[in-house]
Amino acid sequence: MEIILENGVHYRTRLVPLYRAGSFARCVSGNARFDGAYVVESRQAKHPLRRWLVIYQPASDTRQAFLLDRQRQKRIDKATEEGRYYQFMLDKEGGVLVWRCHSASGEEYTLTANSCTCPDHEQVGGAGIRCKHRVELENRLAEERGRRAEDAWVDAQWARIEDAESAWGCDPGAEF
User: Fold this and answer.
1) Which of 10, 39, 127, 148 has its CA 20 to 30 A from that of 165?
2) What range defines the domain where residue 28 resides?
3) Do residues 96 and 152 both lie within one domain?
């Protein structure tokens, strides 16, 4: 299992008793493939003994990059799957332009260029991962820019044709 913290993606164990968590953390700490193993008590544990988990990070930058990419891809896949159901509206909040996203679940989130008010963004934003709402909004904006760029290109081509016809003395409305 993985957990995302501000300093990157970490592995985490399932909830176990404290003595097992401590033992596992010592084993991981002795393994050069991992950095910084530490034991954390879960606030949501329901079992009186199984309350502890171990969080540890791969030492390899390559592995860390792989884990980050995998987390990014999960959000891209979710945006692809659910994004067509999102409704985005441009709004102004305190003099700043923001986007309001009505998600498929009925929740409303506020997005800016660098943030989203959804719980996922609050968890993963510090690690440089965009939530599915930001991914979908960016996709839609890029698609719209692409359409506008394509329309501008077509308009430019027609303008060049019309300029050439004028230069050659052709009547664009004449029949051939």
Assistant:
1) 148
2) 2-59
3) yes
